Structure of histidine kinase:
Amino acid sequence: MTDSRENQGSTVSARLRIVGWIVLTTALALLAVTVSMRSLLSGQVAEAANVGIAQEIEEFRTFAAEGLDPKTARPFSSMGELMERYLARQQPMAGEAIIGQADGRVLAAGTAANQAGRWLAEDPALLGRILNDAKTSGIQESNHGTVRWAKAEAKDASGANGEGHQAHLVVAHFIGGAQEVANRQATMLFGVAAGGLALTAGIAWLAAGQIMRPIRTMSETAASITAKDLSARVPVEGRDDLAQLASTLNAMLDRVEASHLAQRHFISEAREHLGSPQRQLASALQKLNEEDLPRKQRNAIISTAHDHISQMGQTLADLDLLAQSSTPNFIHRQMISVGEVTAEVAAAASRPGAYPDRRFRIAESAKAQAWLDPLRVAQGMHQLIQNAVAHTEDGQSIRIGSAAADGMASFWVANDGPALDPEEACALLENYRSAPGTGEQGSGMGLGLAVVKAVAEAHGGTAWVESGQGNGTSFGFSLPLADAGHGSSCEEDFAQSMASSLGGES
């Protein structure tokens, strides 16, 4: 199945296919124009011959009915004299033959200068077919090409029948010469069309190359991307469809790179946070196997092992939370009190045995309602508390607070430790911390801050850090008071929630 799919499709390059279709379409159009023009020219040749023949026949009929003998000023007494007089006045056009038959004689107009007249006069078989034809007009083939003809009959005034009392006029047009001129014009047009087609093919080749150049750049960029280097991006030039495609491809590469970095961070954090407790737990278990170990020391080792197991369990829980943060159902919003969540988090942190030798106090509590997930907010706050505990000494105070302003609810944890460098504070929430041994230990956010950032971004908010002289360092996250997709304000949501609860109780 795979081989058959790989063999499907064209092996011709897209550039050649574009040029091929353009050339084929243009060739068909030019061919249609050339054929139509040749047909039109041929039609004009036939039409001109028919008009000339019809005009000559009409003139003869008028002359035969109204013409007078200049010698007697009376109607012609002989059909031969009438025909001679009429033919003497005619000047045939090129390719035109005017032949008269009267008194048993065949007369031609302008035979000395008119080649077509000699052709017809000297071809008794052709002339006989025309005179004997029952039709008054038609088309015949001759040794000199196609002949279009018409004939007319005249009788003397007495209306008598007989050879001496009748005359026949034949007007024929040999259209071969005019048709050759039309064919030469059509051939010239075909040559011009062929030249135009070649020019179109050249322009199409250059244009297709220009159009395909961004696509080739995209292909080269995609080929340069490896598992170790995802930094390559496609240059965006202009604002056309290909520029939009390049922007879309770059956005996709940004997401792939971010996902790749997140995966590397996930693995490195798992290795770091699980590797050290694992080694210490193995060391503790090895000591327990030693003989003659005092009971007090054995209990201390067991307690340490329990701490390491608890630490590993917390790490696994944090990693699981990070893994869930990319799923659509990661958060479940409901209307909550920002101040109540702050108080609950502070109470949990102050619970005996939770964080020994640390003092917690609520520095600020917002009186606002927000459409948030209280469980995820509490998890983020506990991560900030653990981070503050890790960076403070025994007996130091840790402040917990919340605020609401400009449509955002902010939760934060602060300590009085040394101030951070502005660049270092900015990098804490932007870079990933490498695993031990990479030379970048502590350069960016660890597992706890990654959880905080995941919770904030899942709510459509941001995580932040502030540090300054005399104010210590504050870590927090700001979340929208109202869900962007919910379509109503927090106050309206809270009122609806209360109305629903009261309605259900009544």
